[in-house]
Design a protein that fits this description.
- The complex is a heterodimer of chains A (113) and B (114).
- Chain A has 113 residues and is mostly beta strands.
- Chain A has strands spanning 3-6, 11-14, 19-21, 23-26, 33-38, 44-50, 56-59, 62-65, 75-77, 86-93, 101-103, 107-112.
- Chain A has no helices and 12 strands.
- With 114 residues, chain B is mainly beta.
- Chain B is built from no helices and 11 strands.
- The N and C termini of chain B lie far apart (35 Å).
- Classes of the chains: A mainly beta (113), B mainly beta (114).
- Chain A binds chain B through residues 31-32, 36, 41-46, 49, 51, 89, 93-94, 97-106, and chain B through 4, 31, 33, 35, 40-45, 48, 50, 56, 58, 90, 92, 96-100, 102-103, 105-108.
């Protein structure tokens, strides 16, 4: 079945540093890929998504490119802010269309000023 | 805009007790699902529903029951709580399914089973 692996955290950065959170996947067919973010005390929110190879999802300065050749969907941001401190989840669609998402274990990002 | 509403926010149970976690959405979404979130495990799917009267099991369904009598509501029942069910539970919904549509999450229910 489909699965996703993302880098272990926590990731600790200073404000304005460059961020990369790695995500790789195993899948049959052509899944859609997602990054969700969870701020403290809240539910998850969709950050960005990509539905086919070479697509780039972007939102709030974050970007991720769907790389089929390396089965990756790494999250990047050029200059992080304290307000970006949160848990980030990589996810992909399941093997049965329209059913459920499969989430990674989450990566905690802490940004200090 | 209410979105996805979960109640209660916090609950403490004793082993063997039963309870229902409530989830309601006001967006007329067909798809609803329940996840549990545990440290180091990410989110794992418990049950999901693609419409009223239709439910199916996810990755970790044992010990949980669901029903979907209306489009708006998708309650999760624990018939006999166990300490292994201590977790944070999230309900989520989307308009057509989780794969190509944005999932809207509730704010979670933190459950402790003693």
């Amino acid at each position: 079945g489909n699965s996703v692996t993302q880098m272990e955290g926590p990731v600790t950065l200073s404000e304005e540093a460059f961020l990369t959170i790695n995500c790789t996947y195993t899948a049959t067919g052509y899944p859609s890929l997602f990054w969700y973010v969870q701020y403290p005390g809240e539910g998850l929110q969709l950050l960005l998504k990509a539905t086919k190879a070479d697509d780039k999802g972007s939102n709030k300065g974050f970007e991720a490119t769907y790389r089929k050749e390396t089965t990756s969907f790494h999250l990047e941001k050029g200059s992080v802010q304290v307000s970006d401190s949160a848990v980030y989840f990589c996810a992909l669609s399941g093997s049965q269309a329209g059913t459920a998402l499969i989430f990674g274990k989450g990566t905690t990002l802490s940004v200090s000023s | 805009n209410a979105g996805v509403t979960q109640t209660p926010k916090f609950q403490v149970l004793k082993t063997g007790q039963s309870m229902t976690l409530q989830c309601a959405q006001d967006m007329n979404h067909e798809y609803m699902s329940w996840y549990r979130q545990d440290p180091g495990m990410g989110l794992r799917l418990i049950h999901y529903s693609v419409g009223a009267g239709i439910t199916d099991q996810g990755e970790v369904p044992n010990g949980y029951n669901v029903s979907r009598s209306t489009t708006e509501d998708f309650p999760l029942r624990l018939l006999s709580a166990a300490p292994s069910q201590t977790s944070v539970y999230f309900c989520a919904s989307s308009s057509r399914g989780a794969t190509n549509e944005k999932l809207f999450f509730g704010s979670g229910t933190q459950l402790s089973v003693l």
